Amino acid sequence: MDNYKILKFTKIILNVFWFMQIAFIAGIIAVAVLLLFNIDLIDLNNLNGFKIQFSKIMFNEQLSFRGESYDFNMTNGEGRLHVDNLDQIFVYLRILAAFIHASIFLMIIYFLRKIFINLTDNKYFISKNGVYIKYVGFSIILLELIPDFIYYFTDRLIIRSIEFDSIIIKNNFHFNYHNILLGLLVFVISIVFLRGIELKEDHDLTI
Amino acid sequence: MPIVTNLDVVLAKRKMTLTELSERIGITIANLSILKSGKARAIRFSTLELICDELKCQPSDLFEFVSDEE
Description:
The complex is a heterodimer. By secondary structure, chain A is an alpha+beta fold. Chain A is 63% helix and 14% strand. Chain A contains four helices and five strands. In chain A, the strands form two sheets. A three-stranded antiparallel β-sheet of chain A has the order 4-1-5, with no helix packed on it. In chain A, strands 2-3 form a two-stranded antiparallel sheet. Chain A starts with a helix and ends with a helix. Chain B is globular, with a radius of gyration of 12 Å. Chain B is built from five helices and two strands; from the N terminus they run βαααααβ. By secondary structure, chain B is mostly helical. Chain B has helices spanning 7-13, 18-25, 29-37, 45-55, 59-62, and strands spanning 3-5, 63-65. Helices cover 56% and strands 9% of the residues of chain B. The A-B interface holds A 201-202, 205-207 and B 27, 31-32, 34-35, 39-44, 47.
């Protein structure tokens, strides 16, 4: 398969992602609007709980092992917290996080589509491509930071509003720094690319 | 840009067209047009030498510095 066919194929895949993402965002908006009109549309008790991490869970019961009883506890784990009749605000916060996440992802697909359109038109070294690559880099960093930031605050609100005696819940801002590095790498590549375009223009305009 | 090209003036004095100059010195008309219109970012000494040789002029005849304030 030559490069042109690969570009065309990737463009088609990006278009599919583009429309799927738009449908997903439309779905999120529809759910949010429906929730505004009818708060009972989503029953939190039917949801599959909120993902949380815990430092320690202490059990009142004892563990029986080879005829002897032991105190025991669990540490450093992850699970889903199910609480009956939890405040609906948490649903809105989760929807907001999902909406922002999907929107930034859509933004990345948008810029990638633009780049691929230029590439299939044989416009390789144009400054627009460099600018789009730069935006993709920024978007990757935003994609990693913003939704996690909202999840962090949502979890914090949930944990503060519920009192546990036997469970110590962790609420760390745990972002994937690999993606931040990836975003920075893309950003650096865009700067080098833009400098390359400048040099090409200098060369073209040197008589 | 503060550097103004007077190539068209020198060409007019020599009663020569850009196409003619292009054919004589072997530089494409597209490149000479870039130079004439002031879009060029740099000029090679070899190109300057060819133009000056053909038009029997000095580099200072071809270029002029005009301050932005003027």
